[in-house]
Write a structure and sequence with these properties.
The complex is a heterodimer.
Chain A (H helix, E strand, L loop, with lengths): L4 E10 L2 E11 L4 E5 L6 H9 L6 E6 L2 E2 L5 H7 L1 E3 L12 H11 L5 H10 L15 H14 L4 E5 L7 H16 L3 E5 L3 H7 L2 E6 L2 E6 L1 H6 L1 H8 L2
Parallel strand pairs in A: 3-8, 3-9, 6-7, 7-8
Antiparallel strand pairs in A: 1-2, 1-4, 4-5, 9-10
Chain B lengths: L1 H20 L3 H24 L9 H19 L3 H23 L4 H20 L10 E2 L12 H25 L1 H11 L1 H6 L4 H20 L2 H5 L1 E2 L1 H4 L2 H14 L5 H20 L5 H15 L3 H9 L6
Antiparallel strand pairs in B: 1-2
Helix pairs in contact in B: 1-6, 2-6, 2-9, 2-12, 2-13, 3-4, 3-5, 3-9, 3-12, 4-5, 4-9, 6-7, 7-9, 12-13, 12-14
Classes of the chains: A alpha/beta, B mainly alpha.
The complex binds adenosine-5'-triphosphate and magnesium ion.
The site of magnesium ion has 3 residues of chain A, from helix 1.
């Protein structure tokens, strides 16, 4: 079976600075995949290239066997790639519910019930009518995930959705992601909170300075000397 | 929808029955200007209010409509309906063209381009002798206007119909998925795109429609004045009013530009009669500053603050 996402030799250069330097990784249909690495290692840049927010300079990105690196972001979303943003980007003039209606109408099923269902899942049901610029940081992060889910993705990329959440809330979000995965959605989790990534992921890669320094099971990654040096600071 | 249609028909019926109430020609002469501003302000708001892309060159879109109509009238004696369609098409095309060149970039580039377009087009028309160049061109009004008391009354009715059309289009957009997409663009374009919104297509569509409506508003202008010349047609007055009216009325709701146009349009008519039309831009400018500072959400925003429970 072809992998759902195939990233091959992808590079991205910001005015001479190599943020991504020949990154290759395959992610299988249904996989729970972890992406770790120190600050500035290129994690967000990689998913910007995958989701179409940035154009990669070279290399190829295939989704479901088809090249997508030339496509505008909205078409990638419609094909099934949804992401959350590390720094929340709510539609600030809209209510929480309306925030979900945008992807629901443009990429998802268009069914209003589904938006309410997702809000309930994410523990935002009582905020449905609240204008999104009144939300707390934690609520904004939940909204990021909720909005991504409303696009009905096949691949959901979560960029540090758990930063700032309490350990109870982290467990809640993890549980939701496990459920989505059980329903067949492939999930890429970018996270600094190690327990969460380790518990969630079946396979992890660690980026450092735009390169993959190692790949493996969570246990193997934690034990890897380069990861220890670059990331865990041991 | 049904309520809006009934309302629209009522407005048109009212416009048509005005001659029974008002016998003074001046009422229609001034009313035409207010209606024309409703079209301009509503058109501006579709791109500027909903999507957040600010057009500083509304005067150029208005003028392209006016001069397209004049050129076709002179060449083929086209009837007014076709002049309006042609003016709308030409300005819609201009909106599409400027959009194609700049809407991929950040909003500020679009705004700058609209200023540049206004300057370039005015220069072109100044040197276009067929439509009178800098001196201008007198336009003969038709001698008879069937069913209407005078040509001015007829033009008043035509502009009322255009205003209803423009407001209807804006309201449709606002309450549909298109409006939600445009608002998503204004709030956060990257997030909109990642939510499946085809941002470039929506912006181009909005720029085209906005331009077309401005062109339609300009098309009957020469007939209204019996004359056309570049300075007043490309007047800064249109550019300033087209954006001041929605900002002062309120940009989030289709009624906002209408309120702004009726208020500012009437004030300016009064100022023109009592003092001088020269200070209109000043009056609008001062009101704009006052509102931007004291009530950035316009009259609608003030209204919502006073009656917070009411959801409009
Ligand atoms: N649009 C941009 N223009 C210029 N430089 C950028 C841009 N985006 C990212 N960078 C740089 O590229 C590098 C990688 O950034 P990136 O955001 O991908 O890191 P990250 O792994 O997500 O880090 P963090 O854990 O802090 O989120 C950083 O040095 C950053 O400053
Ligand atoms: Mg990041």
């Amino acid at each position: 079976m072809t992998p759902l996402l195939q990233v091959k030799d992808v590079s991205k250069n910001f005015g001479g600075f190599m943020a991504l330097d020949g990154v290759s990784v395959d992610i299988a249909q249904g996989e729970r995949f972890g992406l770790i690495g120190p600050n500035g290692s290129g994690k967000t840049t990689l998913i910007n290239c995958v989701s179409g927010v940035l154009a990669n300079d070279s290399g190829s990105i295939r989704f479901d066997g088809r090249e997508i690196s030339g496509l505008p972001a909205y078409q990638r979303t419609r094909r099934g790639i949804a992401r959350s943003f590390q720094i929340p980007r709510p539609f600030a003039s809209m209510s929480v519910l309306e925030n979900l209606l945008v992807p629901l109408e443009y990429a998802g099923t268009g069914k209003l019930d589904e938006a309410h269902e997702i809000l309930k899942q994410m523990g935002l049901a009582d905020k449905a009518a609240t204008q999104s610029n009144r939300l707390s940081q934690v609520e904004l992060r939940k909204l990021e995930l909720a909005r991504a889910m409303a696009a009905r993705p096949r691949l959901l990329i979560s960029d540090e959705a758990m930063a700032g959440l309490s350990s109870n809330e982290i467990s809640e979000v993890l549980e939701i992601l496990f459920k989505l995965n059980a329903a067949g959605i492939t999930i890429v989790m970018i996270e600094h909170i190690m327990q969460a990534v380790m518990k969630f992921s079946q396979r992890v890669i660690c980026l450092d300075a735009g390169r993959i320094i190692c790949e493996g099971t969570p246990a193997a990654i934690v034990a890897h000397p380069e990861v220890q040096r670059a990331y865990l600071g041991a | 929808m049904k309520r809006f249609l009934i309302g629209a028909l009522a407005v048109l019926a009212l416009a048509a029955s005005m001659p029974l109430i008002f016998h003074n020609e001046y009422f229609f002469f001034a009313g035409y200007v207010v209606l024309q501003f409703i079209v301009l302000a509503t058109a501006w708001n579709i791109l500027g209010g909903y999507a957040g892309y600010v057009n500083f060159g509304s005067g150029a879109f208005f003028a392209v409509g006016a001069y397209t109509a004049v050129a076709l009238y002179k060449a083929f004696a086209l009837p007014l309906g076709l002049q309006i369609l042609a003016g709308a098409a030409a300005s819609g095309l201009l909106g599409f063209g400027v959009g194609m060149l700049t809407l991929r970039l950040r909003g500020i580039f679009f705004s700058i381009a609209t200023i540049a377009v206004a300057i370039v087009l005015e220069t072109v028309v100044l040197n276009w002798h067929y439509v009178g160049g800098a001196k201008g061109l007198p336009i003969m009004r038709p001698v008879e206007t069937p069913f209407f008391a005078s040509h001015t009354v007829w033009l008043f009715f035509v502009m009322a119909a255009l205003a209803v059309l423009a407001v209807g289009a804006a309201r449709y957009i606002e309450t549909s998925w298109i409006g939600r997409g445009l608002r998503a663009i204004r709030d956060n374009e990257v997030a909109a795109e990642c939510s499946g919104v085809p941002t470039l297509k929506l912006k181009l569509g909005a720029a085209t429609l906005s331009g077309a409506l401005m062109g339609a508003a300009g098309a009957p202008y020469a007939q209204y004045l019996s004359f056309i010349e570049p300075a007043s047609t490309f007047s800064l007055n249109y550019a300033v009013n087209a954006l001041a009216m929605p900002i002062i009325g309120g940009m989030g709701h289709w009624i906002g530009p209408v309120i702004g146009a009726v208020l500012l349009g009437s004030v300016q008519q009064i100022v023109t009669v009592t003092i001088s039309s020269e200070i209109n831009v000043l009056v609008v400018g001062v009101m704009l500053v006052v509102f931007v500072v004291a009530a950035p959400e316009g009259i609608l925003g003030l209204f919502r603050k006073l009656f917070p429970s009411r959801k409009s």
